[in-house]
Amino acid sequence: MESVCVNCNESGETTMMMTKIPMFKEVILISFYCPHCGYKNSEATFGGKINDYATRVELNVIRPEDFKRDCIRSEFCSIRIPELDFEIPCVKKGSINTIEGFISNAIDDLQSD
Question: E-assigned strands of the chain?
Fold first, then answer.
């Protein structure tokens, strides 16, 4: 569907898709792209019932290709890298990215502040 770009106020395209991720839950994927300024954004909103209890997931990044692993992050999730004493706090929206993407976004946010 057509929607307004928050970056340049021109018309861009929003795509929505509902999917069920095996051993996880239903997720609504939302992506936006503006052909005028190149701005893009993606978001994951969780559909269905929220679990009664939290789940802790650990990933050991050992090889360079591990940074390319796709992850879904809920709005309640924080990301910790204990070896660096670094934490990416919870955000107000869920998202899908690679491990490298989450770290790159955190670096960009720190540099912009």
Answer: 2-4, 11-20, 26-33, 40-46, 70-73, 79-81, 86-88, 95-98
